[in-house]
UniProtKB/TrEMBL annotation:
Annotated InterPro entries: ComplexI-like_HydComp, NADH_UbQ_OxRdtase, ND/Mrp_TM
GO biological process: ATP synthesis coupled electron transport
Record keywords: Cell membrane, Membrane, Oxidoreductase, Transmembrane, Transmembrane helix
Membrane topology of this protein: Multi-pass membrane protein
GO molecular function: NADH dehydrogenase (ubiquinone) activity; oxidoreductase activity
Domain NADH:quinone oxidoreductase/Mrp antiporter transmembrane: 124-415
Protein name (database record): Hydrogenase HycQ
Positions of transmembrane segments: 32-56, 68-86, 106-124, 157-181, 244-261, 273-294, 315-334, 371-393, 405-429
Gene: hycQ
UniProt subcellular location: Cell membrane; Membrane
Pfam families assigned to the protein according to its UniProt record, in alphabetical order: Proton_antipo_M
GO cellular component entries: plasma membrane
């Protein structure tokens, strides 16, 4: 079964290399879809193999897939499939490239490298290899963020290059200290399964400092405040499929790294220290999102700040501990599917409207129902309405927090979520139900005595402006999955048990 571990790593890289050949234009267009489908298939197969508690091992134990990493691999594949399929780029025209354009196939190749790197971060049974993989995602996404070569996209890419690697460098220092803590034992190691073996004698002081630095560094990649400032610019300026990948799964992969480090620290120094650190980061993230969503003017940045909010709730669940982990894992999947769909739709909306300014996008339900209907459904799920998984995940996190004695943190989080809810509802209602462009102009003309504007309003645009099936499947899955107690419930329980078994 070693091939299940190697396939998500090797095949995307092979596809990425093939996309650089000029004659393989069709493969270049569908390479991300193929790679995502393979990762999803490998993740689902690994879930089935590891369901009995037996982990898959490969490359002498460097690669390891237990129930948690298998589940996360399937999430990466599912969300990436929505992003790459829903965000299929137009066929590249033949002929010479315009001056300043990136080489043909570079976008597709970087997406494949990105997917392979995220898979390696999930499958590596070594904190050092996991760090290398997460750093590789930074390199790939830095070029993807600036792919459009506009002034704002290049500025966002440079900001990302400065801030994200700085956080990952802090995580590297923390991992070095964790390794130093193991040098007093007979077998110094960075294997997370080895570090959490209770008989292993680790230096508690070094583990405390190392775990704090590692969590702080990975929290930068997860978009948690106050290390979040790269995220709104990067997500708003990147091509929409890349924004979908970054928000839908890259942030969750960084959260996975935090959970692995937290498992090591909990086994050595107990859960209280990192729990307090995560609660602080969670509430600060919610506060930042609430403050900035109230007067947001750009719908892609609106989705980016929403990601900070949702990562804050997930971090609160991680702080609560074992009882909240199944809800957090459901949150990861539901948020990924919904947010990937919304970013893909945001890209289509930007293409047809020519602007991402919320004030200039009005009356979508009347003018562009082909985009407005799935957008409204996705925003309903993102706001935490039933029957979408985010609703049940948030309820699970908050009840677990109350039972764990974190009632004050839960109450503060609920208040901040209400502020976020109000801001998102106001922005969404304005975009979807506001007066149509010509109707707004007519109202202004009548109010000023200028009379009716010339011309008849255009008929409604019912086109989806892209593949509709991946969006429909993603939103339907986000609504149906919470009700599948078997097999989804057992998968979540097995994944949580895999993490709890080493805590």
């Amino acid at each position: 079964m070693t091939y299940l571990l190697l396939l998500p790593l090797v095949l995307p890289l092979g596809l990425g290399a093939c996309t650089l050949f000029p004659r393989l234009r069709r493969l270049r267009r569908y390479s991300g879809v193929i790679a995502s489908a393979v990762i999803l298939g490998a993740g689902v197969a690994a879930i089935g193999v590891s369901a009995g508690g037996d982990a898959l091992l490969g490359l002498g134990g460097i690669l390891r897939a237990d129930s948690l990493s298998s589940y996360m691999l399937a999430v990466v594949g599912a969300v990436a499939l929505v992003a790459t399929w829903g965000g299929l780029r137009p066929e590249e025209p033949a002929g010479p490239l315009p001056a300043g354009s990136p080489p043909r196939g570079m976008y597709a190749a970087l997406v494949c490298v990105f997917l392979s790197s995220m898979s390696l971060a999930l499958l590596a049974d070594n904190l050092g290899v996991m760090w290398v993989a997460i750093e590789a995602t930074t390199i790939a996404t830095a070029f993807l963020v600036g792919h459009n070569r506009t002034r704002r996209s290049l500025e966002a890419a440079w900001k990302y290059v400065v801030l994200a690697p700085a956080g990952v460098a802090i995580a590297f220092l923390g991992i070095v200290l964790i390794y130093a803590a193991s040098t007093g034992s007979e077998t110094p190691t960075l294997s997370w399964i080895g570090l959490t073996a209770l008989p292993l004698d680790l230096d508690p002081g070094l583990v405390r400092v190392g775990a704090a630095l590692a969590v702080l560094g990975f929290a930068t990649k997860a978009g948690l405040a106050p290390m979040h400032s790269w995220l709104p610019d990067a997500h708003s300026q990147a091509p929409s499929p890349v924004s979908a990948l970054m928000s839908g799964v890259l942030l969750s992969v960084a959260l996975y790294a935090i959970l692995r480090v937290q498992a090591v620290a909990d086994a050595v120094i107990g859960p209280e220290f990192l729990s307090a650190l995560l609660v602080a980061g969670a509430l600060l993230s919610l506060a930042v999102a609430a403050a900035l969503l109230i007067r947001q003017r750009d719908f892609k940045r609106m989705l980016a700040y929403s990601s900070i909010e949702h990562m804050g709730v997930m971090a609160l669940g991680a702080a609560i501990g074992t009882a909240a982990i199944p809800a957090v894992l459901l949150y990861v999947l539901s948020h990924g599917l919904i947010k990937a769909s919304l970013f893909v739709l945001a890209g289509r909306l930007l293409a047809v409207e020519g602007t991402s300014t919320i004030a200039e996008v009005r009356g979508l339900l009347a003018r562009r129902p082909g985009i407005a209907v799935p957008w409204l459904v996705g925003m309903t799920g993102l706001l935490g309405f039933a029957p979408f998984g985010i609703f049940f995940a948030e309820v699970g996190v908050f009840f677990a927090g109350w039972d764990a004695g974190l009632g004050a943190a839960v109450a503060a989080a609920l208040v901040l979520l209400l502020v976020v809810f109000a801001g998102l509802v106001r922005l969404t209602v304005g975009m979807v139900f506001g007066p149509r462009g010509r109707e707004a102009a007519a109202e202004t003309a009548v109010a000023t005595g200028a009379g009716e504007p010339a011309g008849e309003p255009e008929g409604p645009d019912r086109a989806a402006h892209g593949p509709a099936l991946p969006i429909a499947l993603a939103l339907a899955a986000a609504a149906i999955i919470p009700f599948l107690a078997d097999p989804i419930g057992s998968v979540l329980s097995d994944a949580a048990a895999a993490l709890a078994g080493v805590r």
